[in-house]
Fold each of these.
Amino acid sequence: MSWNGYRPLAGYYDVMLDADGSSRPASRHLLEHLEILGPQGLSSVQRSAELSLLNQGITFTVYSDARGTEKIFPLDVVPRIVTHSEWQRLEAGLVQRLQALNLFLRDVYGAQRILKDGIIPTDLVVNSAHFCRELVGVDVPAGVFIHVSGTDLIQNESGEFLVLEDNLRVPSGVSYVLENRIVMSRVLPDLFERYRVSPVDQYPQLLLDGLRSVALRDDPEIAVLTPGIYNSAYFEHSFLSAQMGVRLVEGRDLVVDDDVLYMKTTSGLQRVDVLYRRVDDAFLDPIVFRTDSLLGVPGLMHAYRAGNLVLANAPGAGVVDDKAMYAYVPRVIRYYLDQEPLLAQVPTYLCREPKDRDYVLAHLEELVLKPTDGSGGYGLLVGCHATRDELAAARAAVRSAPESFIAQPIQRLSTLPTLVGGSEPRLAPRHIDLRPFAVYGARDEISVLKGGLTRVALREGSLVVNSSQGGGSKDTWVLRDEGEHA
Amino acid sequence: MLSRIARGLYGIGRSIERAQNVIRVLEVNHKMNLERDRESEQSIWLAIAEAFHTQSDPPSESILYQELVLSFDHPHAVRACIRSARDQGRAMRDHISEEMWLHLNGTYLSLSELTFADILREGRSEFNRRIETFCDAFHGLADDTMIHGPAWRFLRIGKFLERASMICRILDIKRKVLALAPDDEGRPIDVHQWQALLRSLSGYEPYRRAYDARIMPSRVLEFVLQRADFPRSLGHAVQQVAKELRGLNSDRAAQIELHQAVEVFVEQLRMLDAHELLRSGSLESHVPLLSRRCEEISSRMEASFFVSVRPASAPILPIPHAGLVPQQ
């Protein structure tokens, strides 16, 4: 690109440019637009976007600040374009995967055939911290466990999409998808017109329909349970409940009486039929789970087991998005659907297995080591970036508790031009991933939102994209048809 | 609406009104101080201190400012009230307008590092005026930027109930010095006290416009207790509470009873004979009755709107050990 001298990184797949620096077909309009804008123009678009976000209060709470300071979740205005055919393959793979995972959960909390047939090690499942004994034998409404999911995908050096991680407990980020889109259409309207981008604004309706479909009563009362304003994702809880037109409640607004859940309102107690809970399993019910939790409701699990309440997502779903289970998911897909996985995953070494463990210890510098019960990117070791001491400590940890670790070859995450340089703006390649969101309703109806959160690691060379660790986001444009970009 | 939200909005209404009233009382008495002779200074501050239950003895001005303006703990302190309102506002940002939030948060932040020296540097009256203006603007924003639905009504009920309580409290401060025969306009100090009463309620100018410059105790009392078109009278405040309760359209027994109790209070105030109260010397015994009515209404608000009655039920016991493998 002439004003920039943008060069894709050698050996990585760049979404906009191919290896010899020419635009991929679908990104042609984008490249032309960036040329026309130039560095100052793009900077000014970026500033408008940031101002928009700030004014709308699209923030997340930084835990460490006592005043609960809110920061904007950074949006970079260069969008990620996904072609129609790319998306179709991705979506089919996702739907297949989610179906299989839901069947797995139904089985594991029911007849446990997959365990009895020896496909998955039983101890891996039942000893998992996320395995919820109170769910065993429960008739889960409409058989749906994973009403909301956000699967993390990456593209490897050939541009192939791989599943990096399933998020089936309390996945967040969809509100940024929706708000980013509003901001983008405001600051880059001309570019929007050149492309035909699939809309994302129907997500709240999709979610509402999904929650209604699994309800046990007609005209169900739906509520969103939030831990409260100090939770880092509070904005999203408030946003989604407002968009769906349902009530936002905290634990202290709820009470269970005679195995029925109620909200405390100025008109008295009002029954709740479906609770979209953005509170982790452990904090849901102090009688059954963590007794020190103030975020949940005593008796919630009683109401659930009595068949008087729908919880979305179902408790215990975390047993399958545990990193240790990840390596077995292809087997899960084959077992329940008798199909080969349509979406590949990252090759994974399970340190609990001696052969894998030896490999991991010998090749740690080339691997990403992940603890099986970690989340948010903490506790991760990227072999090629680690110091000698860190590597030694990691090896010791693996030797002492091998079942707590998995490792994966360091993936060459795809890149996308991102605005950097502050007062001297320029575009530089930064690593990205993709989190599409799906709603699972009754009768196995799975709706995948055509778009998703593209997260970008803003620091040069960094592969860590989480918001809590210096990541940002980009809008994801799924093209509605092949058009002229074959 | 959720009880917690209703209570929060009600609390914001009370907190902002309280801050404004406290600041106004301080301002009036500061002005009176300047016009006073030495011996009486003590008694004025003492009276205020008594009314707001501070621990000082005897309080100096700077201590009083510490306790009633700058404290973060004292329930009547201006800064404590504004912080409380701001914290509640943050928890209910979805229910107040963005303008209200920015206004509230902005003022809260500007007060967070304030010291008494800062206030003196700014000028007491300038500072007092700034706080009063903030509170007026907040209510103005509430009226003009919120939907006039239940959220707005709870906010207003809080504001007017606090106003009613404060009027009773101010009357309490003044009742000993105000127990005079209605037509006794004798010594200058008494006129001064009646004037101060009016000023404490931003009522001096309105009074003069309604009547004339002559301070007649019975007229003042009537103005302060009954005058329906004077926004800071007790009668007006209670009528507004009744109006908002009506707007809430309750169908629960406790709420209906509360509404009726408020309407009765409205009537009682309407039937008061200020002239007779003063003549018979029963003002001093009547004022605590008014305070009690306000308190009763406040606790009924709590009980009828903010607390849900739970039907009696069996205690919830832990789930017995669930088996790993379901029974065949």
Amino acid sequence: MKCNEFEILIDDRIEGTLPSGQKEFFEKHMQECSACRKEYEETVKLLEMVNTLPKDAAPAHNLWSNIESRISNNKGKIYKIQDNPSSNGYSENGNSDKKNRFLKYAAISLIAAMILVALLPSLFLDKDTPILNKVMAPYWKVTTVSGTTTVGTNVIGAIDSLKPGDWLETKDSSQAILEVPGLGKVTVESNTKIQLVKSETNEHRIAIEYGTINADIISKPRTFFVDSKSATAIDLGCSYTYTVQKNGDGVLYVKDGMVSLESHGRESIVPAGKFCLAKTGIGPGTPFRENTSATLKEALMKYDFEAGGEKEVETILKNAKKSDVFTLINLLPRVDDQNKTKVYTVITNYSASPRNIPKDSIPKLNTKELNEWIQEFQEEWQKEMKENMNQLKEDLKKMNKELRENLSKIPQGEYNFDGEQFNEEFQQKIQENLELHMEKLENLNEMIVIPDELIEKTIEESLEKTNKDLERNSERIDREMERLQERLEKMNKGIQDNLEKQNEREEELKEKQKEREDQWNEKEEKYKKKYKGYWKGKEYHFEEVPEGSEAPEVPETDRNTPEEIKPEKQPETETPENKEEKEFNYQENGFINNYQHSALTN
Amino acid sequence: MLAEPIKEENILELVVDNSYNETELVRNARQGDGNCFKRLFEINVNRIYAFCLRMAANPQLAEEITQDVFVKAWENLHKFRGESKFSTWLHSIAVNEFLTQKRMQKRFMQRFTSTDDVLKYDRHGEKPEVHFNTNIDLENAISSLPEQAKMVLILHDIEGYKHKEIAEMINIEVGTSKAHLHRARKILREELSK
């Protein structure tokens, strides 16, 4: 083994990855070569020194604060780091640290245990409230779903908490979810400002200044309150959307369960699928279903918010359908005694009162009783719907069974089956069933309330989509037209250029032609002056004319017509000899021959 | 039957052993829990800072890069799949940071030469500032190594990574990593024998 080979293998030898075949050579060389041995020993020594170097080093400054602010700047979030016992003075090594930490944990556990013991009696006093709710009640968990949400002046992080007195504000495209164990979930939609007013076991209260919240409340009724300038929404076990405008006017839509809207001595019980408006300084109006008749809605608005009277009540009663019973029940405490009986009568036409109320006690109906009535009616309605659905299912089952039976009646292997008759019967039965179900469906449709808003929204969306498609198409057409226009212009330009070029070329050719003609004429003139041709007998002769003298006179007798001067005998075939001769003559007397020809033709 | 009471030493183990909750901390941090990320920072900051200090040979720059490493880690937490240790992942971010820094060295140097206190970064003029309270000669010798050789030596001999891991971190061949280490050790031997 050579020294340079040995050097390469030192690292492998130290790491223990040297192949066994090379081990012997390595050891042998190390014994033989003192320089290589020294190198190996120095490397080992170096590694021993390196091993003593620390893996850790503490920075001189607190880096976390800077990192925290950079994270918040980058992400638009500030992560509130709650003081936690493990976050300070942490070090990985040392037994004393272990003991200290153990003592710290033990102390915390002891304090926690003491708090729990102190809380225990109150936890078991009220069995309805979950324990978690009691422990966590003062803080609401906030989960930012999207965008930037602020608590006071701070931008909140992905998970944070809200305590009583805190204001929470969402911006254009942000949304936040508030959660309280045992109470439910409140989604704060974009452009909304709310304040957590109170958070106690039996009362959770938020104030909404403006914007929209979606509440899904699972706690017992009258636990969750939403205050606004116009009214307070109190959950009665429900899921609802509450929108408040900046002037305080609110719109409540109940998706599930019931909500009580209260203010200025007015109370409206809003059941599922109904809307209720509230005006600042007046309070809540009467709830209504969105697709109720426009006349009824108008009359209600007038009655609730514009001090309407008997006329409006009559319009309401005239236009109310069975599905408007909730509206009428809510109207009952608001109308005067005389109208109360009228309203009561209309209501009982559709739904019997849960209690046998004597006529004279109608004016004294209180909210609790009305509430009960609404509840009863709602239950009845739901039961009816359920029954209808069940009936529909049963009918369908029956139809299926009949169909199967009819199918089994088809004689197999026999050809005397009257297909036409069977078809007719079958069609008839299907028609009957269809009619029956259509009727039921129509009944159901009448009962199922589809908010106009939803229909309008759907139409708007589809229109918007169509418009967008149209715009996109028209843009495409425009682009295509532009492209065509460009191509046409290009083609036109090309044609024009070509025409111009052609004209130029023609002009050029004409000029050249003229030039040639001039040259030719000039030469002709020149030769005309220089040579004079004449016929002598049958031969045409040229004679050079000396300058200054005229061409010699040719006797008349010698002048013949060209026909006459045709050679008497034309060679029948062109022999190579005469062809050569001809060409030679032509070349020799090229111009002269030409001249001769032109003279002949002239 | 009553459950056996937990012995004090078992509780100590539970409290002290951080590996049991690293996954948990990472998972929570990934969901945006700042407290958990802070805890991960506290566990790893000293080791990452030590690496940065050896690489940069300047405490201020080392602090700056350590901060960058943790900010990058926070931003890319969703990419951490837990296939390696969290500290290994942080080291690879740090390595990347230095490689990027090297690429931007021209701009970097311009920035440094404009301030007086960081002139020491230019190692041709003065000795590097490595604040380890141990073998100062060795630390200085390490800091004067060529960049890649130094990186491989620190990762292999001090941090204890294998050549395969280093090759993946720096994006080089295993053989190249071995060659860098050999060169680094050779230079160190020569420097220390002077």
